[in-house]
Amino acid sequence: MLNVLGRFSPKTGKHASKSVSVKETDFTMPHWEGHEIGVLSTLAGCAGILHGSMPKGWVRSFIHRQPVPAMSVFMFSVGVLLPVTVVPLRRAIGLPTNQYDAEHPKVKYPKFEALE
User: Fold this and answer.
1) What gap in Å lies between CA 104 and CA 29, rounded to an integer?
2) How far apart are CA 111 and CA 98, in angstroms?
3) pLDDT of res. 63
4) Residue 3 and residue 15 in contact, taking contact as beta carbons nearer than 8 Å
5) Which of 13, 50, 94, 97 is the most buried (most CB within 10 A)?
6) Distance CA 17, CA 25 (A)
7) What string of DSSP letters covers 53-108?
């Protein structure tokens, strides 16, 4: 098997000693479902359309001239990105995620001491 950096010693037929092979790492790919890809592609598309259609420096003038709508746009984008970022972070930390994605294979349910 090739290692991460692609180093292979043809003399010994083994991997180079400084690199780490893929089997030795415990890295798992993030679980991407359709809604995460939909949210990120929608935001990227909106940003691309705005960047291409508006003149240079429009963000600064928008923030300066209309701070309330600019703050509203910022809070909207944070709110849209929260489900994409919080659930994987909670799953990585080991906190319960059953309210967000009960069908996920790595779902964690809360433990209640009173019920045990």
Assistant:
1) 14
2) 12
3) 94
4) yes
5) 97
6) 15
7) HSPTTHHHHHHHH-HHHHHHHHHHHHHHHHHHHHHHHHHHHT---TTT-TTSTT--
Strand partners, 15: 8
10-41 burial, b at 16+ Cβ within 10 Å, e below that, comes to eeeeebeeeeeeeeeeeeeeeeeeeebeeeee
CA distances from 56 to 7, 30, 53, 101 (A): 46, 36, 10, 41
Report pLDDT for 24: 55
Q: Could you say which residues of the chain have pLDDT below 50?
A: 1-5, 8
CB atoms inside a 10 Å sphere around CB 5: 12
Residue with tokens 């359309």: 49
Residue 21, both tokens: 């092979």
Report yes or no: 36 and 84 within 8 Å, Cβ to Cβ.
yes
pLDDT at residue 26, rounded to an integer? 60
Give the number of C-alpha atoms closer than 13 A to the C-alpha of residue 104, restricted to the C-beta side: 19
For residue 95, CA distances in Å to 3, 15, 40, 99, 114 come to 33, 38, 24, 11, 18
